[in-house]
Amino acid sequence: MKFRAKIVDLACLNHFTRVSNMIAKLAKTCTLRISPEKLNFILSDKLASGGVSMWCELEQENIFSEFQMEGVSAENNAIYLELTSENLSRALKTAQNARALKIKLTNKQFPCLTVSVELQLSSSSSSRIVTHDIPIKVIPRRLWKDLQEPSVPNSDVSIYLPALKTMKSVVEKMKNISNQLVIEANLNGELNLKIETELVCVTTHFKDLGNPLLPSESVSQSRHPEDMAEVHIDIRKLLQFLAGQQVTPTKAVCNIVSNRTVHFDLLLEDVSLQYFIPALS
Amino acid sequence: MSYPAQSFLSVFRSLAMVEKTVEKCCISLSSSNSHLVVQLHCKYGVKKTHNLSFQDCESLQAVFNPALCPHLLRAPARVLADAVLSFPPALTEVTLGIGHGRRVILRSYQEEADSTNKVMVTETSIGEEDFLQLHAPEGTAVTFCLKEFRGLLSFAESANLPLTVHFDVPGRPVIFTIEDSLLDSHFVLATLLEQNPCSQDLCSPSPRQPMPQKQAHSIPHLDDFTNDDIDCYMIAMETTVGSEGSRAQPSTSLPPVSQPSHDLAPASEEEEEAEPSTVPGTPPPKKFRSLFFGSILDPVHSTQDPSPVLAEDSDGEG
């Protein structure tokens, strides 16, 4: 098993750092899957995360100038590692003005992902090297089946999201009133966030959001455009997802499977993020 | 006399205000009621008087002499301050030493007891060119408290003065000096006493391998960055589907990490700041292993007797 990669372009480095910061906010521990074409950050431990799952994918050639990997075997040419997300984002934070960054799979006292940063500081004539050894756990192949790309469910409603920052500030305030939130949307470009308690009901309405075009055989064809599809979810999970979004996404879609799942499908430049929040039972 | 530093600091809390409005500052001792009187004479006839109470205490004389330390390095404070930025704020101890190629290395230090809960290790390597003076051989290293180090670094940086580090073998204190025409300050920190330095070498078959030549494998990150061809890809995995076993089994070809059977020092508080004292006592010895400089030091040198103590444990101050 082998992995080494290098980033020399500052813009790519910043992009990768932003992705890593986002992952650190979304999942304390996550799985990093390394394959010849892609890197994935995966959260699939349904028990630990309370049913939330995440699949983040980026094309390695958009980030790395050099990339070599050898998986577990020829037929299974991938590497699955478990790591604490914050370690990676912390390591990348020290690379803000780096000339080059290298990531390697190493074995120091324990298996590590070693991040080496070469910095050129104005205060020094020579380059400074900062190395971080991030402890990792290699995930054995028999567990890989639980870490595959989730299948996109047949949603009842698919809608473009409003500004995530706005959603976040709304949900943040709502969290003080209730632990449960209802997210509902229809094919008329309307999305509502609702909380209900004995004393008060609060609803925030978003209009004119637009709905992505649906495939013609979709179940939703027969759906009345005004009908709302709704899911009751844990408000903290929604807030955690929104808090992780520091950048305005290129595209943000919300798919709702009535009373089952909310599926967020975001595109951040070339990085795709899918986040699933299950309905409260 | 001694008094809480916070009280004294609170007099000068707002530096901007002090610079703008204070014309004169008088510090005197009021013998009548045991107060230190700090009077700020400000603009427009305003006078602010602060009475700080103090306690008499023993006259303390720290026993240390930078000239006795064989190793020295000197750099603008900025160089070292930049280096410690990459460490997490919560990190308690850091190891400073000279590595391969005469580079100065600062590395986060983890106690052996934490090895089950694996923590990220961060290391910064600084080229010799950034130092005004460097008189220390490769392989020397000492470990001390990072928090205190950060504090004295920010002082040196704000005063825009170079910092000199005098050190010796692990266990002997490290002395940081900052001086100019107006002030002469010495910060003395205790360092950790070294334990068996070579027991952590994964690459040698036997746990005791004193020669540094075989250490190249354990210090790959000190290699020249641009020629980095040494990779350690030694994580072997179970490759058969459906095999039982624990989540990640290391290959049996790897030598097991040798667990030394040394007693770790009881969890007594680490002596972080050498307090001057006239009564010699014995500091709680805290053992650690030198992990990455290779075993430059002959294991025989790890002293069994505690070195003569220069200062006693500080009393529990507020």
UniProtKB/TrEMBL annotation, chain A:
One of its GO terms (biological process) is embryo development ending in birth or egg hatching. It is found in: Cytoplasm, Cytosol; Nucleus. Keywords: Cytoplasm, DNA damage, Nucleus. Component of the toroidal 9-1-1 (RAD9-RAD1-HUS1) complex, composed of RAD9A, RAD1 and HUS1. The 9-1-1 complex associates with LIG1, POLB, FEN1, RAD17, HDAC1, RPA1 and RPA2. The 9-1-1 complex associates with the RAD17-RFC complex. HUS1 interacts with POLB, HDAC1, FEN1, PCNA and RAD9B. HUS1 does not interact with RAD17. Interacts with DNAJC7. InterPro entries: DNA_clamp_sf, HUS1, HUS1/Mec3. It holds the Pfam family Hus1. GO terms for cellular component: checkpoint clamp complex; cytosol; nucleolus; site of double-strand break. Component of the 9-1-1 cell-cycle checkpoint response complex that plays a major role in DNA repair. The 9-1-1 complex is recruited to DNA lesion upon damage by the RAD17-replication factor C (RFC) clamp loader complex. Acts then as a sliding clamp platform on DNA for several proteins involved in long-patch base excision repair (LP-BER). The keyword tRNA processing does not apply. This is Checkpoint protein. Belongs to the HUS1 family.
Automatic annotation (TrEMBL), chain B:
Residues 201-222, 241-318 are annotated as: Disordered. InterPro entries: Rad9 (IPR026584), Rad9/Ddc1 (IPR007268). GO terms for biological process: cellular response to ionizing radiation; DNA repair; DNA replication checkpoint signaling; mitotic intra-S DNA damage checkpoint signaling. The keyword S-adenosyl-L-methionine does not apply. Gene3D superfamilies: 3.70.10.10. Residues 241-261 have a biased composition (Polar residues). Its main location: nucleus. Its EC number is 3.1.11.2. It is found in: Nucleus. GO terms for molecular function: double-stranded DNA 3'-5' DNA exonuclease activity. One of its GO terms (cellular component) is checkpoint clamp complex. It catalyses: Exonucleolytic cleavage in the 3'- to 5'-direction to yield nucleoside 5'-phosphates. Keywords: DNA damage, Exonuclease, Hydrolase, Nuclease, Nucleus, Phosphoprotein. It holds the Pfam family Rad9. Component of the 9-1-1 cell-cycle checkpoint response complex that plays a major role in DNA repair. The 9-1-1 complex is recruited to DNA lesion upon damage by the RAD17-replication factor C (RFC) clamp loader complex. Acts then as a sliding clamp platform on DNA for several proteins involved in long-patch base excision repair (LP-BER). Belongs to the rad9 family. This is Cell cycle checkpoint control protein RAD9A.
